[in-house]
Amino acid sequence: MKTLSALFTMLVALCASGCTPQSPAQRSPDEAPPGEVWLTPQQVKDARLEIEPTGDRPVGGLVRAAGRVTFDDLRVGHVFSPVTGRITKILAQPGERVKKGQPLCVIQSPDLGTAISDMSKAQASLFQAEQDWKRQKDLLELHAAAERDYELAHSVYLNARAEMERAERKARLLRNAGLDAVTQEYVLPSPIEGEVIMRGANPGLEVQGQYSGGANVELFTIGELDRVWVVADVYEMDLARIKKGAEVTINVLAAPNDTFTGSVEWVSGALDPITHTAKVRCSVANPDGKLRPEMFGTAAISVNPETKFAIKRSALLLLGEQPVVFAQIGTTPKGLLRFERRPIAVDEMSDGAYVPVRNGVARDERLVVNGGVLLLGLL
Prior knowledge:
The chain is an alpha+beta fold. It is 25% helix and 36% strand. It has three domains: 130 residues, conserved putative lor/sdh protein from methanococcus maripaludis s2 fold, CATH 2.40.420; 94 residues, Elongation Factor Tu (Ef-tu), domain 3, CATH 2.40.30.170; 74 residues, Helix hairpin bin (Helix Hairpins, Orthogonal Bundle). It has six helices and 24 strands. Strands 1, 2, 19, 20, 21 and 24 form a six-stranded antiparallel beta sheet that branches. Strands 4-13-16-15-14-17 form a six-stranded antiparallel β-barrel. The protein is elongated. The two termini are 24 Å apart.
């Protein structure tokens, strides 16, 4: 307690003496000039000042970038209607989990009946063409028909078979069950297993078929949110440091107290011509579903640190808006340690315990890295 009391008394005395500016002629040789603080080695020890020499340090172990949450495109299905018609029944609601192939809605459509009817007509045409071809083949073997008639019948048969295959594939594309009945109802199935994220379908809604060339409306979005993507925009100067597989930490505004982790899956091979940023896709686990598509957040991507001339971040003090540091510049004739306040310029965008220096201090200078605020109070 006596040591702290003595230190406090010293600080008050130094502050009092520094309140009235003095010219060099008025200042005593035992008084520190403006911008300097003189302390005894014992006072430095009692104040627990930490002093560290400047030099090259590892800086920038993280690259921060703005990001946006999106679906993993292999775990989401955007469902459109393949037929033109009117929705008559809704079978799945938002938030409901569905299996692959489970019905989502029923659409009354003439396209389905037309497809089944066309297949039946194609079957009949194929049967007739096949019989004619076989008949011409038999006649040709008996020399009772011209070879030209046989070739014509064979060509008609091949065309009929191609038409049958086309009609059958179209019918199978539109039908979920058997092909033995003509119906006007199309049951829209889920393409994947997952949760109904969005439903744009309503009873009575007129929909345009995907294969009709009209404007399609997304009727359902089915997806899994236990793993999502975060797409970050990384500036050109940081792009070369980002590697596939690097660890990523995600923070979003909607969950300020939560941190999500993932890894870099893909780095774009091209830059945006306007912003000169590249897309970096990160795969992030989302077991609680707190990350939702289109949320904005920050991605901190781990990179190999660079070695630069830097100082410890804790050495920086703010005097108004100007960053300053205290450098130990020697001793007085009476053995007092001299500390000089210096304005400094640093790269504050760098992450980590050390920040690169632009100007203000030189290599191998000794800076106060802890307790500098005490010296600032003595000026």
